[in-house]
Amino acid sequence: MRIALVTKPDPRMTGLLRYALSLHEELRAQGVDVALVQPTPPPAWMARAGRALGLDAAAFFGSYPLSVRLDGAEICHLASQTLATLLLTGRRPPAVVTVHDLIPHLVDDDPALSLYRRPVERLLDRVALRGLRRAAAIVAISEFTKRTVVQLTGYPADHIHVVYRAVDGAVFKPLPVPDGFRRKYELEAENPTVLYVGSEDPRKNVDGLLRAFARVRARVPTAQLLKVGAPHFAAERQRLLGLVDELGLDSSVRFLDHVPDEDLPLFYNAASVFVLPSFYEGFGLPALEAMSCGTPVVASDRASLPEVVGQGGALLDPDDVAGLADRIAGLLADPQWRAAASEVALLQAARFSLARQAEETLALYRALA
């Protein structure tokens, strides 16, 4: 059985690319004949037309491709949902599609949360939804995502298989934090650190986190907040910087944009508390990364996060700024509480593994073969 695992051509180490690479590696370790494949680049005339419209055609049609070479694969696994445009163009072997989230469709009617910047993106996303209906099976990375696929596409629920994401336990684990790392990022060990990892996407509720942190600072004056992650939403970044200034947090909040992958586990280990207060998450991988490092987690009680965090952290209403602040400040002020929270976080994280993710995906391939 030969598998073509199709992923976007992206030079950045995104969460989607990390998913495809880790799944490919684990499947090969289990003896599966699997090839990592990228869609065929758009023709030159299409690239020129894209530039005329202000689009990066290579990136755009990497996300919404029209063709791909599968070289005799018996099963085609599309590693993210936008690649399902391929299922509308020509004959393919039985196709599996991994759906990470359909959040853009869920929030499209909310001007504050809508993610579409151009009408063509909305159009192509809807085309990809049509392609999803032609999949032989769908992998959803959470029960929440499975429910949204059924809700938005009408795809049969019994053909949707929940296979939870995982992180590399050899990378994300409890680690000592070297002095050199603290010097590099100017982190004072005696100052308790609240960590958020992710973008400024409005659905992530960084606004609520900043307002909660302002209350935390009133109780823990030495606390600092680190926001780690590239600024993919420029207008929202500027608004949040204005909110930092308005709340008087200039000296205690830092935005760290391009952090090397090898430094990310050390940020989790240097943090006193990790917070993910999102309104929507397809999975919430940073929460799992934090728990795998034994970092106490405070997360939203919405969408997929209760599935991921479970009993391994505190789940709170993301609209309850005072409640978020109380839990964060309480953890910062109580080392014994943090130690207990660390233990339960590690126990919860142990339920997710790359080997299990690959085994469950392989079982689906065999059912289709």
Structure commentary:
- By secondary structure, this protein is of the alpha/beta class.
- The protein folds into two domains: 2-166 and 353-368, Glycogen Phosphorylase B (Rossmann fold), CATH 3.40.50.2000; 179-349, Rossmann fold, CATH 3.40.50.
- 42% of the residues lie in helices and 14% in strands.
- The chain has helices at 15-29, 44-52, 57-63, 103-106, 119-132, 143-153, 179-184, 206-219, 234-246, 264-270, 285-292, 305-309, 321-333, 335-349, 354-368; strands spanning 2-6, 33-37, 75-78, 95-99, 137-140, 160-162, 193-197, 224-228, 253-256, 273-276, 297-300, 314-316.
- The chain has a six-stranded parallel beta sheet. Strands 9-8-7-10-11-12 form a six-stranded parallel beta sheet, sandwiched between helices.
- The longest helix has 15 residues, at 15-29.
Named CATH topology of the largest domain: Rossmann fold
What would the average pLDDT be, to the nearest integer? Answer: 92
Residues in helix, %: 40-55%
**Which CATH class of the largest domain applies here?**
Alpha Beta
Number of helices: 15
Distance between the termini: 7 Å
Number of strands: 12
CATH architecture level-2 label of the largest domain: 3-Layer(aba) Sandwich
* Secondary-structure element pattern, one letter each: EHEHHEEHHEHEHEHEHEHEHEHEHHH
Cα Rg: 21 Å
